[in-house]
Write a structure and sequence with these properties.
The structure holds two protein chains of two kinds. Chain A is built from 24 helices and 20 strands. Chain A is of the alpha+beta class. Chain A folds into three domains: 139 residues, no CATH class; 304 residues, no CATH class; 73 residues, no CATH class. In chain A, strands 1, 3, 4, 7, 14, 17 and 18 form a seven-stranded antiparallel β-sheet that branches. Chain A has a six-stranded antiparallel β-sheet with strand order 8-11-5-2-16-15. In chain A, strand 17 and strand 18 form a beta hairpin. In chain A, helix 1 packs antiparallel against helix 2 and helix 21 packs parallel to helix 24. Chain B has two domains: 174 residues, no CATH class; 108 residues, no CATH class. The chains are: A alpha+beta, B alpha+beta. Chains A and B meet through helix 5, helix 6, helix 7 and helix 20 of A and helix 4, helix 5 and strand 7 of B.
Amino acid sequence: MELSINQKVLVFLLLSIGLITLPHINHIPLAVFVAFNSLLVWRFICIWKVNLLPNKWLLFILMIGAISLLYQQHHTFLGRDAGTSLFVIALGLKLLEINQTRDIYLVNYLAFIVATSQFLYQQSILMAAYILFVTCVLLATLVLINSQKPATLAALKTAVIIVFQALPLSIVLFVLFPRVEAPRWMLFNQQNSARTGLSDSLEPGAISQLGLSDELVFRAKFNAELPSQNKLYWRGPVYSYTDGKRWTEGKVSKKNAVVSKVDYKGYKYQYTLMMEPQDKEWVFALDMPSSFPKALKQNSQYQIITTEKNNQRAEYKFTSYTQYNTGELSDKAYKENVQLPVEPSAKLKKLVTTLNGFDQSAEGFIQNVLMHFKTENFHYTLRPPLMGDKPIETFLLESRYGFCSHYATAFVYLMRIAGIPARVIGGYQGGEINQVGGFLEIRQANAHAWAEVWLKNKGWTRFDPTAAIAPERIEQDVNIDLQIATGIINFSPMFSNSGKALSWMKQARQMWSNIDYSWQRWVINYSTENQTKFLSSLGIHNIKSIVYWLMGSIGGISLVLAWIILKNKTTKLAEEVRLYQMFCKKMAKVGLDKEVAETAQNYCHRIQLQRPDLSEQVAKITMIYTRLHYEKEPLDKDIKLLKTELAGFKVNINPE
Amino acid sequence: MKEVLEGLSLKQRFKLSRFISGEKATIKSIKLNHRRVFILPTIRGLGFVCLIVLLLLIAFVYNNNLAYLLAFLLASIFFITILHSFKTLAGLIIKQSHSPSVFAGEAVGFEIVVDNPSNIERFNLKATLDLAVDFYLNAQEKKRIVLYSTSHKRGWHNMETVTLSSTYPFGLFRAWSPLKFVAKALVYPKPNTLEIPFPDNDDTQVKGFQNQQSKKGNEDYYGIKEYQQGDSIRHIHWKAFAKGIGLFSKEYSNDKSSELWLNYDQTPGYNKEEKLSQISRWIIDAEKAGLQYGVSLVGIKIQPNQGSRHYKKCMEALALF
């Protein structure tokens, strides 16, 4: 059955398909995106020039071409990226072959699959809202096909209403539907695009690139008191090996997962970390964590490592201390942390000597070095000059312009020359407090490098040379907006101007950030584990009670929906019409139904002919009714009259 | 109304025929309610279910909560579409109207009236008898729908089950209601296509019949009388009508004398149907020519006359003979 498909429907369908595939511009290869859009434009033109549609042969050639394009781009048809491209291209080809309403349905279903594939790349609220909108448009095309009056807006309205009616039910399903994690063999390898972030090696200057990124790394919500800004050191990779230019993680200690006992002191901070997807297995805990979830491990350098796949958001509960004593240092560790690539140059040795590095206690030397940074002409900058082959020497003795990583590496280098065990720590410092949600947001711009020095009776102790040269970096929060805008380091005080002084833009951003946080936490991250936790808090413990709850809530919602959808929305009839209908009902009982097209007057005559006994009464009722119904200003007393007349109107089955 | 809605026994309730051919035939109006409306997914609806399953699979493999959410949303939409499907038909009042007579082989047009007493529009309604008729109803609208059904035999032609259906809103479900009305149309014998001259009436049967002249006989203008229902349209004095004087018929001198008797026994034809078919042809021709004609079937005799009422009477006799 060939059906001429309404042009309006086609335009609507093609537009909605254009909308669906649009965000894929970032996800699928450009060639595939261009190919799809050419097909779409072709089809669009064909709405008006039908003879330009391809015939079977051309379509076949196009299909072969598309398949080879896909293979050339992806070398496979499986997996997320290739699958997405495959569905997008299939959608484009199917568009050229719409002959029947059945084809429109197929296109529609394909479009839904493509819409779903968007979620494999992005799961933000905005994307969800966008897809919800597109869903409405797609459903509206179905409404258009299924109604004789093709009114686009009315169809869209119907679709939107139905989608919103469906929302409560889908939320219940979302919450209660048992989540089972897919077995490993079913998971396709996801080639994630490289993310910015700290890397496993540190070169002075590397972190400064992160200073311009406002990408969120993680959020932290403290159970009680927030640590002061200068205590917010989120510890990451420990760089203990250097070749003079580059610093990498120590090779020996990485395998050794036995942690020496730590003596914790001071305030106990309890908090929840919510990590954004990462490339690395690092989890950035506050300073020295004392307890953490089982899924995590702590290596010998007290760094927290995850064993799970971490390309998804994850939530962890931590307890940390900012005062601690790590105790003795093993010989092996000692050697590792005084390692130097070459015999230090004479110039550097001279510097250490002038700072009393060889003849004073470690603490004294440290103070001297920090003092040196402070009093000599050192500068803190996001854009340090290039340092060449001997970056540390160049930085310390010549340029004196550097970012946190320069100061940290130079500091550690000087310590090692003096024979004091020291290492560079990578991580994040500070974080912006979200006033709305009461949590900290740590972005890439918060990336930081500092030093740890092993001191007798104190263990590993943190020293931040950046604090010496630019104390505001530590005391205040990085003003990311301004920093990105100007490319110059900017700080904004963290607590001093909370509340009123916040600009409305910042407030709006925080509000949004808070919504996003809840979204991540409750929607995106609603995993098997979270579900079990949440459901058991409701008293649902096993699959049987989940099924009962599902049935119960679906039943309940269906009842409410049925009531909303099916309730009789007839407007209140005018009083006289209601009364007249009562009269008609009475007559119908004796077999004198009012005909469909019969006027009240004709009906009256017919009754009078068949039931002369009622003639007078019927005539009177009809007269009052007509007067009430058709006159511009009906009289109130007529209603009363009609009522009394009807009350006295009795019809016997047999005429008297 | 009341009787129609009275309870069914359990056995009747689950009878398969109720879903296809409807309940007992009625002459009263039928209001569609939960008992009358049936809903099942269409092929496209099943396709939609496959889509949901595929989306769930994607969500499962990629452990993607938003994909789950979209799949659940579509599933919920699928589910509540059932209610909307029901809403498209519920509350409609259907009544059969008149059904004019036709000749065998022609399509009988049964008229039904579909009344939408509610304030919601009803899109995409489809009434099916032999052929489907698509229509829609605005709020508070009544529409007359003529459903054609081909007639094969003369005699009474009963209206089969009418199916009122709709796939609104998404085409995922089809709601339908089989309606059976006591409605019948009379089917006249199919007129013979051969040109056979009117029969020569012998004296015993016919008072007087001028063979050749009779055909021109009506040209002997005789006078004017006031128009009466049943007078041939050809005899109307149109000039007078145009002047606004009123409706008059011309009378012809030999109207009463030239009477044609159509006798079943003397009609050529090998069997009953062929004979009736020939008589049917003659009646049409005679009525056209404005002759006075009478029909004599075995046991039935209709005195010569003319006009639409007489024509109808003769045809009815033929149809039911």
